[in-house]
Amino acid sequence: MDTATGVPPTTTAREPVAGESRLSAREVTLRYGDRVISEELSVSIPDRSFTVIVGPNACGKSTLLRAFARLLKPAKGAVHLDGEVITSLPARQVARRLGLLPQSSTAPDGITVADLVARGRHPHQRLLRQWSERDERVVAESMAATNVADLAGRYVDELSGGQRQRVWLATALAQETPLLLLDEPTTFLDIAHQVEVLDLCARLHREQERTLVAVLHDLNQAARYATHLIAMRAGEVVAEGAPGDVVTAELVERVFDLPCRVIEDPETGTPLVIPAAPAGSR
């Protein structure tokens, strides 16, 4: 049971064996048409982790997330959810186990915050089971958890970027999925709203014990918030593990072609990347 909101994560059809990853890609080849992004890629997401995928532009981060979300079918290999090939599962069943906050979300015109968050309950609706007291409670608790309850009657298109991101996150939470995927959740936000959204994600991970998988561009933010980091380059996983073990000057230069120093963040003790000054600038 979620101690913060009272919302229990949805149970799955088959409880995973201890130590078994609920979400994994096994020797997948991912491509768009003839363009291969990743070949024979294998990745397992640790349960109850806040996993962040980092890497340079066009390295395959969001493509991997799309495969995890069943939006892109591997040309070879398979993504597994709770031990089953995800493409073999009914869409509604997947939606009860795995939620997605896409990179760009567009709300219908004239929809209020409360109505948008309520759409997160769609996977739980049935022909003979329509809106219930539980649905009402979960929507209210999801809005409370993301600090948007006071916006319930506002139109989504009237909100700031940070407010909209929190509303979309509330919508994903209302699905009550134990796994949540976030594709660049801080895109187009100023630094204050980036921190606000990532602080919220970290709190939801910590208090609700959900498994979060996020794609981020900012390596320092990834190192600060992740419990598990996956570094990619050219469609391959270069390194993965705890940020303190993964983020080194050697790895940053290898992955991002960026000479740097890595020091300890004075606020969190996590790795902090300091780019090297250009030659002759001092």
TrEMBL record:
Cell location: Cell membrane
Family annotation (PROSITE patterns): ABC_TRANSPORTER_1, ABC_TRANSPORTER_2
One Gene Ontology MF term: ATP binding
Transmembrane segments: none
Alphabetized UniProt keyword annotations: ATP-binding, Cell membrane, Ion transport, Iron, Iron transport, Membrane, Nucleotide-binding, Transport
Keyword Ion transport: yes
Annotated InterPro entries: AAA+_ATPase, ABC_transporter-like_ATP-bd, ABC_transporter-like_CS, P-loop_NTPase, Siderophore_ABC-ATPase
Residues covered by the ABC transporter domain: 23-259
Name of the featured protein: ABC transporter ATP-binding protein
Domain of life assignment: Bacteria
Membrane topology type: Peripheral membrane protein
Residues covered by region (Disordered): 1-20
Organism: Streptantibioticus parmotrematis
PANTHER family, A to Z: IRON(3+)-HYDROXAMATE IMPORT ATP-BINDING PROTEIN FHUC
Pfam families per the UniProt record, alphabetical: ABC_tran
CDD domains xref list: ABC_Iron-Siderophores_B12_Hemin
